[in-house]
Amino acid sequence: MNLQRWDFLLVLTLAGAAATPAWGQSVAPSVGSAGSGTQSAASTPDFSSGIWAHPSLGFESPVSGPGPVRNKSRTPTGASNFNQLVGDYSNPILKPHAAEIVKKRGEISLSGLAFPDPDNQCTYQPVPYLFWNFEIQMLQRPDKITILYNHDHEFREVRMNQPHPAQVTPSWHGDSVGHYEGDTLVIDTVGIKVGRYTMIDRFGTPYTEALHVVERYRFLDYEAAKEAQERGQKEWPAVPAYPVDPDYKGKGLQLEFTVEDEGVFTMPWTATITYRRALREVWDERICAENVQEYYAGHQYYSEKDARVPTADKPDF
Question: How far apart are CA 212 and CA 188, in angstroms?
């Protein structure tokens, strides 16, 4: 078995088949501030009906303009090889030091090992790394939107029609505020915590506390959503364990997000995630225990001796 993506295969098995502030800096009200006003319930798009499926591992590139880092490792069909994640460090969005980090992590992948990431370590997943999740569900209320993610039951809470606080305390999902612009839900996130295993994407692209992410969710007609998913799956093949409902011909949901971080990127870039109605109607159990003692190819990675489970050198009796 290719141990590079052991964690990913385990998921399938369990499935059963514009800079922002650093800590303590002031924050100016952003999109989603109280001044943007509220929207009547009658005109608010209802994204909360059911589970949405995006049965591919990575981000979809935009139709035009700067996009995310792509995989240099390809399958015979030309698609991204998710068993070997080697980020294209020549992407012009990357500053030199960020490109070097992506290159080094790609070299680990090429060696047959896996570099630590929030998924294989079962730690909190920052925005926008979190967007890889195959399924989501939205719970909409006038003052708050909760977004559920299937992996390890992570969730985010978005305060509606509110500004960011004057003093932002970094957290893994950041401080998110939202508002509606017609038929589009706009979410602005800052204050995303930087930690030992945090990264933007599956290729290990880093970020700083200047990271700023703006999400825009809107409905797509059935044919447009189907076409967008099929286009995305030419890059990231579909995962059979997370099917869309083939009989559902209603609208799809598309997330377009823009990423800015002057500490890492030379320019803002954009990606999309296109969802269609999931075949499953209820959430399955997806528990992932924090990985404190992980082995790959006979080598121990990612843990300190003090994190190991205590063992005795000899029996107590």
Answer: 8
Q: Where are the alpha helices (DSSP H) in 62-164?
A: 96-110
Task: Give the pair of three-digit tokens for residue 218.
Answer: 């809107």
pLDDT band at 268 (very low <50, low <70, confident <90, very high): very high
The continuous run of DSSP H or E covering 225 comes out as helix 222-233
The owner of tokens 């800590």 is 23
Both tokens of residue 245? 């409902």
Instruction: Give dist(CA 7, CA 187) in Å, integer.
Output: 30
Mean local confidence (pLDDT), 124-143: 95
Q: What CA–CA distance (Å, rounded) separates 123 from 171?
A: 13
* Contact predicate 179/161, CB 8 Å: yes
